Amino acid sequence: MVNTFAKAAKLKNWLARPDCPEPIRECKTIFDKAFPSTKPADTDPDEIATSAFVSTPSELKHLLSDRKVALRARHKVDNVVYSRSSTHMGNSLVMFYPQGQWSAEPVPGSIQYVIHKQDGSVVYAVCEQLPAPQGSVDPFRHYPDFPARIYSTGLSSKLCLVSPQWVLCHYGRWHLDDKRAVVLTLSRVCSYLTCNIIT
Amino acid sequence: MSETLDEPPTKTANPKVMRHIREVIKDMDTPSWVRSVPHNFGLAAAGSLKADEWRTMTTIYLPIALVSMWGEGTVHPSSEDASHLRAVLDHTMLLVCAVMLACMRTMTADRMKRYLKYITLWTSQLQNLHPHIEHRVNQHMAIHIYEFLKLFGPVKSWWCFPFERLIGQLQRLPHNHKFGMCFFFR
User: Fold this and answer.
1) What is the complex's ipTM, to 2 decimals?
2) How many CB atoms lie under 10 A from the CB of residue B135?
3) Scanning A59, A132, B20, B174, which has its CA 20 to 30 A from the CA of B131?
4) Residue from A28, A30, A153, A189 whose CB has the most chain B CBs within 10 Å, to mutate
5) pTM attached to this predicted model
């Protein structure tokens, strides 16, 4: 498999050279489809027009000292798209470390605002998923390597600021009933629940 | 004992179960990078699932649907039904957990051991719960994945999805169906 990849890479390199023979170049059409070249990086997607900055909305004034901010629909970090909930609910659901404390357990929340500040930094305003109602049974506790948990279907009414660096991953959410929601951590690197649940 | 095993109290994959799985697929909020699966899963019109779709089903939708139906706190017509379905669920979750661990982008000795534990338990218990199902070579091969994890690391670096994608791209290229004098068109 490694040999095949290496050969394909060499071939791509050869086809891209200006001195590549014409007959081989004719085969490039096929190879362009078979091994599509990687897209060039977006041209500074964070560049924002001055006119996009508006007065800070009243619900964010107690969180931000900035007089003007730009509110965005989405934000891309390492090719992963995070959105506000009104744009794409699924992309707004994030597990994050509260206050950036890496030793704490990540908590789920939904991004309500993607805020671009005038100094170029980006921050999310997030409503946390409320804990499961008192006394509710979590049937997922028996499966420690399946990182799902029961939470409330409701979100906190209080917004908190979350830096993109504090975000661990997205989570999937399904409403089990009117009061309980299943929260499934979608990290492919960390299964944080493993260390916290007794098998 | 054998009578109980030959005739399970409740058929597990009945229309109600399939409907519930489809509801979970339809109603669950997922990020856009999670690949979609057929919304009509289980119906003839959905066709057969591809390997990547099975992975999404196994690691996201199926476990949530099954645990919400058969897990702790669910109500069933009889205690026999409840215990049988719970046993089927616990057994299925062994496979789910094995797949979750095997698909991790980082691999540790502990994860490898847990993968081996889950997959051997699942294989050894298969015929206790499903006596009509015969063991297949794939199940034996799944146990060897433990050694491959030790030798090559996370499966993402050596799984065959890139080759599957390439085959798909080549299959979609229009050609004249004449082998040996093949022409491709844009």
Assistant:
1) 0.85
2) 11
3) B20
4) A30
5) 0.81
